[in-house]
Amino acid sequence: MAVSAVLLTSCTTSGNDEDRAAVSSPPSPTATPTTSAPSEKKLTEQAQTALAAVHSGTLVEAGVERVTDGIHTEPGLSKGKTYRLNVVCAGSGSAQLEFVPAGAGRAATVPCDQSVVQQRITADKLVRINVEGTKGASGVIAWQIDAI
């Protein structure tokens, strides 16, 4: 049976004590900032879940946008038919819902607390739907138009 021997040596420095303390002390941990705000993916999932809970009718158009980008759409709606617009914002702050022409629906505030805001739309002409985040608002806005 063979026996191996390992020889360990150590080196020391001579000099002043401050140099040795600086060399031998472990590095201090660095603070990494953490965020408690939900991710955009998580907010999107929350908003889509809220819309799924109120879905009724035949889906015409839907989407998800950042609050900072807003929603600007001109859906292809059939004249004389009735539709339901569902809008939900997940994040912080609020957004403003507007229709062009104004008579196509009611202007409304959409709070970014995952509440679903519903509007009935009757298309007589081309309808433009705009949802703009208010100053300081963040998160995502999900929307869905159903034919009813």
Task: Give a quick rundown of the structure.
It contains 2 helices and 6 strands, in the order H-H-E-E-E-E-E-E. It has helices at 17-24, 40-54, and strands spanning 58-66, 71-73, 82-100, 108-122, 128-133, 138-147.
CATH architecture annotation: Sandwich
| Assembly category | single chain
The Cα radius of gyration reads 29 Å
DSSP strand count: 6
Unreliable stretches: 1-14, 19-34
Sequence of secondary-structure elements: HHEEEEEE
| Secondary structure: helix percent | 10-25%
* Sheet having the most strands: 6 strands, antiparallel
* Total domain modules: 1
What's the mean pLDDT score?
81
Helix count? 2
As for the CATH topology, it is Jelly Rolls
Describe the protein:
- The protein has helices at 17-24, 40-54, and strands at 58-66, 71-73, 82-100, 108-122, 128-133, 138-147.
- The protein has 148 residues and is α+β, with helices and mostly antiparallel strands.
- It has two helices and six strands.
- Residues 1-14 and 19-34 have low confidence and may be disordered.
- The chain has a single domain (40-147), classed as Jelly Rolls (Sandwich).
- Helices cover 16% and strands 42% of the residues.
- Strands 1, 2, 3, 4, 5 and 6 form a six-stranded antiparallel β-sheet that branches.
- The longest helix has 15 residues, at 40-54.
